[in-house]
Amino acid sequence: MIRSRYEPENIALFVDGPNMLRKEFSINLKELKKRVSRYGRIVIAKVFINQFAPEKLIEAIINEGFEPKVVLATKEDEGNDVDVTLAVEAMEAILTKDIQIIALATRDADFLPLIQKAKEYGKKVIVFGAEPGFSSSLKNSADIVEILT
């Protein structure tokens, strides 16, 4: 398809809530959206959380224009419970021709296969992470990496 005028690329943004929305990182969802928007037009914006997330957090997610995706978890699995659901939804976006960029807010190396698959399908991948604990494999496999402070 030939474009007659510039159209921004469509972005699917996925936030690993238990990994990124922690007090020690103070991630501002409004600021995250602003930073992601520099790369194109956000058409999907989802934050993955578990059922233990406080109501105030869910309200904040909605107020910033994100779709909260609440995943059931056990108390023992509280930190890793959203990974599979996030990966499945991200794969759906990867397989959609209308999405050109996959943006992930995570520090979790478990998403390396997802990044590799997105690139295999010709998608640009942007990873937004935080220190400490930001996976080197994520940093080295993404097209663009930004550290959130």
Give structural notes:
This protein is an alpha/beta fold. The chain has one domain (10-147): 5'-nuclease (Rossmann fold, 3-Layer(aba) Sandwich). Helices cover 33% and strands 25% of the residues. The chain has a 6-stranded parallel β-sheet, sandwiched between helices. The radius of gyration is 15 Å and the shape is globular.
Which helices and strands, and how do they pair?
Elements: E1 10-16, H1 17-20, H2 29-37, E2 41-50, H3 55-63, E3 67-71, H4 83-94, E4 101-105, H5 112-120, E5 124-129, H6 136-141, E6 144-147
Number of helices: 6
Q: From the 3D coordinates, which CATH architecture would you assign?
A: 3-Layer(aba) Sandwich
| CATH class annotation | Alpha Beta
Structural class: alpha/beta
Radius of gyration: 15 Å
Strand order of the largest sheet: 3-2-1-4-5-6
CATH topology grouping: Rossmann fold
Helix content: 25-40%
Strand content: 15-25%
Q: CATH homologous superfamily - what is it? A: 5'-nuclease
Query: What is the terminal separation in angstroms?
Result: 39 Å
Report the sheet with the most strands, covering strand number, pairing sense and barrel closure.
6 strands, parallel
Order of helices and strands: EHHEHEHEHEHE
How many beta-strand segments? 6
